[in-house]
Amino acid sequence: MRNYKAKDVDSYIASSAKEDRPHLKELRKIITSTISNVEEGISWGVPFYKYHGFLVGFAVFKKHVSFGLCFALLRADRKILEERGYTTGKKTIQIKCDQKVPTTKIKQMLKAQVKL
Fold first, then answer.
1. Which residues are registered as beta bridge partners of 88?
2. CA–CA separation, 110 vs 61, rounded Å?
3. Separation of alpha carbons 61 and 73, rounded Å
4. Averaged pLDDT, 66-86
5. Percentage helix, strand, coil, to 5, in the chain?
6. Staple 94 to which of 14, 57, 64, 89, CB 3.0 to 4.6 Å?
7. How remote is the C-alpha of 112 from its chain's centroid?
8. CB 9 within 8 A of CB 49
């Protein structure tokens, strides 16, 4: 969901559906704790994080939360994530409300993205 009224990530999360907030908060925590000096903001109506340019973002949709990388492709991680029941795209992971956030995989992807 794009929320062009959200001025910061706190207001984006607060305006999201109650059942989506835990995933959004967890993704935020993973990003900010994994990448030191990451810049947090809203771009295109959704939370985005910058580290020497755009790094990652996330957004809430009707039936899932989407986590997306800006440059790196998921490649080998796609198969692992799909075997665990996640829907993936070239650069995104869809996390449904009844699924756990794949914390370890996301941390690995963040670290790889920073190296690029």
1. 93
2. 22
3. 21
4. 86
5. 35, 25, 40
6. 64
7. 15
8. no
Q: Which residue's entry shows tokens 């795209």? A: 89
Q: Say which residues have a Cβ less than 8 Å from residue 104's Cβ, sequence separation at least 6.
A: none
Spatial separation of the C-alpha atoms in residues 20 and 99, rounded to whole Å: 11
The two three-digit tokens of residue 63, written as one number: 């039936």
pLDDT tens track for 1-48: 677 788 999 999 999 999 999 999 999 999 999 999 999 999 989 999
Residues in the chain: 116
Joined tokens for residue 6: 């959200």
Main-chain dihedrals φ then ψ at residue 26, nearest 5 degrees: -65, -45
**How far apart are alpha carbons 45 and 73 in whole angstroms?**
23
